[in-house]
Amino acid sequence: MSILVVGSVALDSVRTPFGEVKEALGGSATYFSTAASFFADVRVVAVVGEDFPEEHLAFLRSRSIDLWGLKRVPGRTFRWTGEYGFDLNDARTLETQLNVFAEFHPDIPEAYRESELVFLANIDPDLQREVLAQVRSPKLVAADTMNFWIDRKPESLRETLRSVNMLLINDAEVRQLAKEPNLVRAARTILDWGPTSLVIKRGEYGALMVREGGWFAAPAIPLDSVFDPTGAGDCFAGGFIGYLANTMNFEEANVRKAIVMGSVMASFNVEAFSLDRLRRLTYPEIESRYKAFRKLAHFEDL
Ligand code: AMP
């Protein structure tokens, strides 16, 4: 099944204790679609400016990502500048330039409107709703967001959440959004607003899924080479939704396996700057790391 994603396609400048990149390929839709492309067909709706390098589009096409809905318009591409200290779970935004996204309104191509899975990647919640107004009857709508939008557009975000089945955000954002420091109570508050599942991303500590049936915890694999956590959340979402699109099985056991696939894809992404690790990733590597995750979390009663 195909996944429709709307989100940012960006040029990122990132500094971590291990190095830096300037104006590298980034963006929530870019990371998501690259990770998901290992499992399913992906259609991207986004906008870039005239300055966006053609080689980046060629890379996305090389992953068989459908770019029919990616517009190139006069102006500058969205830019994000961020840095991380030794605590790589803590991203500090230094600058966000919306540029062409400031005037953008998604126009979903007719062929995309029947998409059964929709991922609203991190982007203005007003635009997320504009997408939902144009799709017909998706089986699954999942969404991401970040502190930038929780601060600036909390009401709009709440409105978007009414039509979302799954929300994927990090633990600090769960607390911020619900205005509640206790994670369990914060999760309950957010689930009352609409989503039936909440996936809480916890960086190097893994991910938690909360839904009516209870909680599920997936670890993150301890890695000895972590260079840049940018895009880990989007790659997590790409592996997760990509695997669900590939199997179209929404039973609890399969959703749990999909969460682990998300963790697998995020674990590769952090091993290099920008999308560089995913560029050379192979499917056998994904399978072998999936097995390592199973081993890591396995225990039995004696
Ligand atoms: P992640 O590390 O998975 O949370 O996402 C990182 C990506 O989000 C970067 O590649 C940025 O280009 C993109 N990004 C950062 N801020 C925003 C924003 N306010 N709206 C949309 N995308 C953003």
CATH topology, by name, is UDP-N-acetylmuramoyl-L-alanine:D-glutamate ligase
Write down the overall mean pLDDT.
Answer: 96
Total number of helical segments?
A: 11
* Spans where pLDDT lies below 50 across 5 or more residues: none
Distance from N terminus to C terminus (CA atoms, Å) equals 41 Å
The computed structural class is alpha/beta
Biggest sheet, open or closed, and with what strands and sense?
9 strands, mixed
Bound molecules: adenosine monophosphate
Radius of gyration (CA) equals 18 Å
The total of beta strands comes to: 13
The SSE string, one letter per element, is EEEHEHEEEEHEHHEHHEEEHHHH
CATH homologous superfamily grouping: Ribokinase
Q: Class in CATH?
A: Alpha Beta
How much helix, percentage-wise, in residues?
A: 25-40%
Content of β-strand? 25-35%
Write out the strand line-up for the largest beta sheet, numbering strands in chain order. Answer: 5-4-1-8-9-10-11-12-13
Shape annotation: globular
Count structural domains.
1
List keywords for this structure.
302 residues; four-stranded mixed beta sheet; 13 strands; 11 helices; nine-stranded mixed beta sheet; UDP-N-acetylmuramoyl-L-alanine:D-glutamate ligase; alpha/beta; binds adenosine monophosphate; globular
Describe this structure in words.
By secondary structure, the chain is an alpha/beta fold. It has one domain (2-297): 3-Layer(aba) Sandwich (UDP-N-acetylmuramoyl-L-alanine:D-glutamate ligase), CATH 3.40.1190. Helices cover 37% and strands 26% of the residues. Strands 5-4-1-8-9-10-11-12-13 form a nine-stranded mixed beta sheet, sandwiched between helices. A four-stranded mixed beta sheet has the order 3-2-6-7. A hairpin with a 6-residue loop joins strand 6 and strand 7. The structure holds adenosine monophosphate (AMP). Adenosine monophosphate (AMP) binds next to strand 2, helix 1 and helix 8.
